[in-house]
Design goal:
- The chain is an all-alpha fold.
- The protein has one domain (about 5-260).
- It has helices spanning about 5-20, 25-45, 60-80, 85-90, 90-95, 105-125, 140-165, 170-190, 200-205, 210-220, 235-260.
- The chain is globular, with a radius of gyration of 19 Å.
- The two termini are about 20 Å apart.
Length: about 260
């Protein structure tokens, strides 16, 4: 297949998701206000009870801030990829499938579109970093951008594969409720790992989303507070997140190419 055909498929799907997001004022307002309200309400409510041994001076708003950044990427992936089911039923994706571009280009175009929406929301929320006690100059932006891009692509393609495989909005909502949302909660986004909680701590260690949160959290600190991450090093975070991204891309491509 010609490279021009591949790029045409990717760019059309990419641009379609961006225009869907940017052309709806209500969606823009909700996307930017929801995380602020969520961060302030949850953070403010739990500040008085949050204590972490070895991390004195760390309040809950600071701890929770990186988790909300990852939440934005996750929610964008969930709400962006559920449209795959709608587009299949309405016939839009059938027209894409008979176009000259490959099915892999379809996966990549959709993943880039959904990821871009998530990254726009995350960047907008990062403007509030000083309110959480993080100076703009103190943030490791290169590391942060890398983990946000990898994490958004991983979650977008994972959600795409689920949506294509299930082909039912009700089934997708059910899977989202028992896998994706709990995956974020058990990633260290809302509470730190506790080695004394045997099974729960192992679930957090085996959860690939934990390493996305860890990578994002490390970007905000010169020296990471003790007990706030699942992994022991940034290298571990990179390896796991990269493996999760490659797995999600491969799975989405296999699911799409096997279907009729």
């Amino acid at each position: 297949m010609k490279l021009a055909d591949q790029w045409a498929t990717i760019s059309v799907l990419w641009g379609r998701d961006l225009s869907r997001f940017l052309r709806k004022p209500s969606r823009l307002i909700g996307a930017f206000l929801q995380p602020i309200i969520f961060w302030l309400m949850i953070g403010g409510g739990l500040t008085s009870t949050f204590k972490l041994s070895g991390a004195e001076g760390l309040n809950y708003e600071q701890y929770f801030f990186p988790g909300v950044v990852v939440m934005l990427v996750l929610f964008a992936a969930i709400f962006g990829t559920i449209t795959v089911i709608e587009d299949r039923h309405e016939g839009f994706l059938q027209s894409v499938l008979i176009a000259p571009g490959s099915r892999s280009a379809l996966v990549l175009g959709k993943a880039l579109g959904v990821s871009s929406v998530g990254l726009i929301q995350a960047v907008a929320f990062l403007a509030l970093a000083p309110l959480a006690g993080f100076g703009y100059m103190d943030i490791n932006w290169l590391n942060l951008v890398m983990f946000l891009i990898l994490g958004s692509v991983a979650l977008s393609t994972f959600g795409f594969a689920l949506a294509w495989w299930l082909d039912s909005s009700q089934a997708y909502h059910a899977i989202m409720s028992v896998i994706l949302i709990p995956g974020w909660i058990l990633s260290g986004a809302m509470f730190p790992i506790n080695p004394d909680q045997g099974a729960l701590s192992w679930i957090m260690k085996l959860n690939p989303m934990s390493y996305i949160v860890d990578g994002v959290r490390r970007s905000f600190y010169v020296e990471i507070p003790a007990g706030t991450t699942v992994s022991t090093s940034s290298l571990t975070d990179i390896i796991v997140v990269l493996a999760f991204t490659l797995f999600s891309l491969l799975w989405a491509n296999v699911i799409v190419n096997r279907s009729k």
